[in-house]
Specification:
Elements (H helix, E strand, L loop, with lengths): L24 E2 L2 E2 L13 E6 L13 E9 L5 E4 H4 L3 E4 L7 H7 L7 E6 L20 E11 L6 E6 L13 E10 L4 E4 L7 E4 L7 H7 L7 E6 L20 E11 L6 E6 L13 E10 L4 E4 L7 E4 L7 H7 L7 E6 L20 E11 L6 E6 L14 E10 L4 E4 L7 E4 L7 H7 L7 E6 L19 E11 L8 E3 L7 H5 L9 H13 L3 E3 L5 H12 L15 H12 L1
Antiparallel strand pairs: 1-2, 3-7, 4-5, 4-6, 4-8, 7-8, 9-13, 10-11, 10-12, 10-14, 13-14, 15-19, 16-17, 16-18, 16-20, 19-20, 21-25, 22-23, 22-24, 22-26, 25-26, 27-28
Amino acid sequence: MFLEGSLSHTLRRLPILRLLLLLQISERGLSRASRAGAPLEDVVIERYHIPRACPREVQMGDFVRYHYNGTFEDGKKFDSSYDRTTLAAIIVGVGRLITGMDRGLMGMCVNERRRLIVPPHLGYGSIGVAGLIPPDATLYFDVVLLDVWNKADTVQMTILLRPPSCPRMVQNSDFVRYHYNGTLLDGTAFDNSYSSGGTYDTYIGSGWLIKGMDQGLLGMCPGEKRKIIIPPFLAYGEKGYGTVIPPQASLVFYVLLIDVHNPKDTVQLETLELPRDCVRRAVAGDFMRYHYNGSLMDGTLFDSSYSRNHTYNTYVGQGYIIPGMDQGLQGTCVGERRRITVPPHLAYGENGTGDKIPGSAVLIFDVHVIDFHNPSDPVEIKTLFRPPENCNETSKIGDFIRYHYNCSLLDGTRLFSSHDYEAPQQATLGANKVIEGLDRGLQGMCVGERRQLIVPPHLAHGENGARGVPGSAVLLFEVQLVSREEGLPTGYLFVWHQDPPASLFEDMDLNKDGEVPPEEFSSFIKAQVSEGKGRLMPGQDPDKTIGDMFQNQDRNQDGKITAEELKLKSDEDREQIHEEL
């Protein structure tokens, strides 16, 4: 009720400091007269509550929103915005208010409280307002300023927190996910995303947001916190919004940007660590084992293979994983560390998955490639050292060999070593005594030669692995051939270097009693070996081998061999062929 009537007084264009003209404060409060008892010449202002922060003061031409109580000197109330539950909202300094109120509001801060004494000539003068304000009335106002803005205002942005790295900034047409607290300029909260349990998700610059928020989000980085002050004409204007945002209200948003992407985005790759030697890069169809940490763009961790102490194992480029990861893993090297940023349309889309990956979330994977192979891979053989002298004979299937080895995963994790034992490892090649890939890699070696072997899992321990060996693991061997002995044909325990004696049984029957007990049989075979006339299967206990040979010849198992029982292996084979024919 203090709009200027017909007896308007024009506000002079005075600096704000001139407004603090007469501060008349007595012990009992405000006085209606000067100390000399003369009538007041100007508005008396008491700033009885001044907020700590005052980013702006009311100036002429500003639009203000405020509450007030208006009383006479005797305390009788003649008007109150509180009674109407509606704030006064008006432009200051353009003649729409009584001059005393115009002056009294100048220089005020939001949330400041003032008591104003307005003398009659700066109020309603000698005429007053019929039935409401008598002539020559001094008016007392208790005012609290809640909002101030100007048509020349723009969106005000204050960065509260900026992350150390900023992979990208928000641009028009981007899709953003952010949290916010929304308040009026006086701090009254009207909305927030946190109470809804999810981020606010929307496109920028496409008309989905109020104009001020569209502008205020531009240039933000994921993880950035920003304060955005929006004047009403870039917010909800004269109509406001529902019951929570009044007309002509400035809005303040405290925003935390969670992530940002564009529907046109592709997978972004960043190499964090690249091994010096990268002889092969992963392609579609390879089977890969890798560790990863998966996080949202604001750093929130949603999954990690390390927490399970187990690699993630899958085919690449075959649709077993999200498309963005399928793309991002191709071209990696064994041992490489790579950051893969996947936009939602190449991840879990608008719906997200589970309770840890929200809809429209950008995903960031920090990946460490442990190994990869292809189901068609052979054993990779690299000669590290070959003796300079001629090597006419090399290891082959059936040979008995002794060799040293170190075995590790491709990431360098040590598994086994023959050097941990007193003697080299022994094996007969082709006898299924070692994994197939190692058996192949040990063939064709010279004594003293050293090799590096890369054995794919289908030629090693397969999908299930073995004790100490993870499933689907590619194995790296460094082997050195220590010795090699000629092997025996399959099924033979002993072979002659020349034709056997014509009178074999007679030579074997040392005491000439027509029977050969185990002792005579063993002595005879050992004599042939020592004289170089024959050799036993290498790599086996000679006594056990001879015992097995005796058991084979003792057909009736009576503990002795007779002339009828004794037969050469070659003769037995011919008889078997004849029987089959």
